[in-house]
Design brief:
Elements lengths: L5 H12 L3 E5 L2 E4 H17 L7 E5 L4 H12 L3 E5 L5 H11 L3 E4 L8 H8 L7 E4 L11 H10 L5 E7 L7 E6 H15 L6 E4 L6 H14 L2 E4 L5 H11 L8 H9 L13 E4 L6 H8 L10 E6 L8 E2 L6 H6 L3 E2 L3 E5 L4 E6 L5 E2 L3 H7 L6 E9 L5 E6 L4 E3 L2 E3 L1 H8 L5 E11 L3 E10 L7 H11 L8 E4 L13 H4 L4
Helix pairs in contact: 1-2, 1-8, 2-3, 2-6, 4-5, 7-8
Length: about 500
Amino acid sequence: MTASTIPAALRAAAATYGDHPAVVEGDQVLTFAGLLDQVRATAAGYVERGLEPGDRVCLWAPNSTAWIVAGLAASYAGGTLVPINSRYTGHEAADIVDRTGARIVVVDDGFLGRSQIAELRAASPLESVAEVIAIAALDEVAGTALEEADARADAVTADDVADILFTSGTTGRSKGAMSAHRQTIAVSDAWARIGGVTSEDRYLVVNPFFHSFGYKIGIVVSLLTGATLYPVATFDVDAVMRLIESARITLLPGAPTIFTSLFDAPGRAERDLSSLRLSITGAAVVPVVLIERMRAPAPEGLGIDHVYTAFGMTEAVVVTMCREGDSDELVATTCGRAIPGVETRIGEGGELLVRGDIVMLGYLDDPEATSKAIDADGWLHTGDVGTLDEDGNLKITDRLKDMYISGGFNVYPAEVEQALARLDGVADVAVIGVPDERMGEVGKAFVVRRAGTALEADEVIAFAKERLANYKVPRQVAFLDVLPRNLGGKVLKNDLRGVT
């Protein structure tokens, strides 16, 4: 029987897999038993720093062994984990810290040459925070209140909120999707079962831990299956190929851009990537030829035995997946069928509706947005337009929302527009996604200058870089005299797509 809480899953993994490697990062190897020991000590440190059951712990860092320990310790101490995008600016991160009332914030200070702690403190007084901890000093957090930490872990229930993952909405204001422990466990277990993941697997995690694809479908899957994780902080195609070859990696899920980068890598022919057996991709339109090449033997392809596509979202994590035996065309042109325990149907206007125990509890402190997203019958309104074939395979055909996907990350134009609207010289602005060979889509900003100003494109991009994560920054800027709008004042973004 699968554990119903994350602390229980961690304890079960330590008991079952013991000295089997849980995480490998460079020369550092941490066993499942060792992982439990480190998590217990860190959780005790959180308790000694004032963390109470239900308090939030924000974690702002890239993938690492320390991230896994810090994140699991939040759950073990009875807290709620709030991952923050490692590429966020201090303003974006501080907004999440303040809105969650976080008690503890763990930060990879110095990541990408930045001072994240200084950025946080410059952006907010952080009134709720008892301590900001540098993740490099996580060993120093270890406490002696182990009995209290264990008691907190014992007291966690399946219905307690395990995590709050933030996703932006079309209003431009980010929303925190809350999941209970039972939901995080259930969706991770379903993914692992469909993928046939076992303790023999070596799982290279490129997907960021701050995203459900890295945290739930990475860390939690490892706890449930005994698979060994190889976390990657930043994607470097040569380093990834070397790691696949040297560690005999078997699992490599990720966005299509990861695999197109592998195909285009100059040194791929010299690398032995034959150990790869499973990949699950999605997050963008997937060409049939990409699936064919991923499955084709080397040197023409990657020789991955099982390549699946899937559909998910922060509010439900994984909704549909392809299965073993599905054809290349089915895998490339659909997102597969609903996972166990999930229902899908097409509602008004062709909108995909989803129902099941994995659907989030709701949005943090936003009952109005929650009621709009989840109707009285429990159906989650995804905002995506699609079709279901006679076998239940989902095909996404359009988006009700304006969201586009850049390099595997969702970008919500309203959030970018709100940031750019603060730039002196901008009278009006609209952002859309446009095709890009490498990233799938990138942002294009249409700007109406204020009278008497001489704003230039590089100024717009530089302003965005100061306030937004890199993948949100528009790569193109066009200037118009006026934005096309309907009688209700809404920008006609389809009209903008024809503007060069």
